[in-house]
């Protein structure tokens, strides 16, 4: 599907776009279109050569997808502009009003190996991925920055449920009843399974601190080998500035009735530590106390500043 036809499909459906309600699937709140198509999603059988990119929303998903696409195409920027991100790397579970193609629709038209995106927590990933021993890359972002980014995304994405209270009114403690569920359950679920399932578990903060090192880790995990020059090029092409200006990666293909980027850009800041501009000392203390309780059973080395 070309960029034009994908954009046109969204444009045609935009009149019927609403803030879709959440319906729990095995205890995880998902948008109603996803929940209503759950049996087909759960039954999806990937090819063993497919690669899964899993994240909690707003944790560096699009960034990682672009890195992978460039690695697969030896750093060729023009090839990687063949279509917008959701066409090159379909979103497994996403379902929207017709004529917008679902993730499953797009995947049916692609030959393996495919790069497949998901925000599903580990327990909801179709079991075929693990039965077929697919490679999977998980990217985790520290809870405070992730929540800030999700808050702005909730406001600009007009398919997300109403974001509820303002930041000042308590959004900062609303970390569970959002699409795709609890951040805590999400990051822990993949963490405890990472060795058994051969999941490459990456941290957004590490990627920001030393993108070259993390791109090389992704390359080795994918059993690829590209030159140092190509790695340098990928580092440059996937900088926040270049990604934000890339129409095939910045979701400008999604019209304003769906993603209102006048409220907040899809690619807003891409920083580590932006939470300090949002949390008051009192909010931060309350959040930290809850965080300690939620994370007491694991030792995941998150950093809130670099």
TrEMBL record:
Record's keyword terms, sorted: Catecholamine metabolism, Cytoplasm, Transferase
Domain Sulfotransferase: 48-298
Principal location class: cytoplasm
A Pfam short name: Sulfotransfer_1
EC number: 2.8.2.-
Subcellular location(s) per record: Cytoplasm
Annotated Gene Ontology cellular component terms: cytoplasm
InterPro entries attached to this UniProt entry: P-loop_NTPase, Sulfotransferase_dom
Source taxon at top rank: Eukaryota
Protein known as: Sulfotransferase
């Amino acid at each position: 599907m070309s960029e034009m036809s994908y954009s046109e499909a969204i444009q045609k459906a935009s009149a019927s776009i609403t803030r879709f309600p959440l319906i729990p699937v095995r205890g995880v709140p998902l948008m109603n279109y996803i929940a209503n198509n759950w049996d087909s999603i759960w039954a999806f059988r990937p090819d063993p050569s497919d690669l899964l990119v899993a994240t909690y929303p707003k944790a560096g998903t699009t960034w990682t997808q672009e890195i992978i696409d460039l690695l697969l195409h030896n750093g060729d920027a023009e090839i990687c502009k063949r279509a917008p991100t959701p066409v090159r790397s379909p979103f497994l579970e996403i379902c929207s009003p017709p004529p917008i193609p679902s993730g499953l629709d797009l995947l049916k038209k692609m030959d393996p190996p495919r790069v497949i995106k998901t925000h599903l927590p580990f327990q909801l990933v179709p079991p075929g991925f693990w039965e077929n021993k697919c490679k999977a890359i998980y990217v985790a972002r520290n809870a405070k920055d992730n929540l800030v980014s999700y808050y702005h995304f909730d406001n600009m994405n007009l398919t997300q449920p109403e974001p509820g209270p303002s930041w000042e009114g308590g959004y900062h403690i609303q970390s569970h009843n959002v699409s795709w569920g609890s951040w805590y359950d999400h990051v822990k679920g993949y963490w405890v399974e990472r060795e058994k399932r051969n999941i490459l578990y990456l941290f957004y903060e590490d990627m920001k601190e030393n993108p070259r090192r993390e791109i090389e880790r992704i390359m080795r995990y994918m059993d690829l080998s590209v030159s140092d020059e190509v790695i340098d090029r990928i580092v440059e092409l996937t900088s926040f500035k270049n990604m934000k200006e890339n129409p095939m990666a910045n979701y400008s293909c999604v019209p304003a009735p769906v993603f209102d980027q006048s409220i907040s850009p899809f690619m807003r800041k891409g920083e580590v530590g932006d939470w300090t501009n949002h949390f008051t000392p009192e909010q931060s203390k309350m959040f930290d106390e809850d965080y300690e309780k939620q994370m007491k059973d694991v030792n995941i080395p998150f950093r809130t500043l670099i």
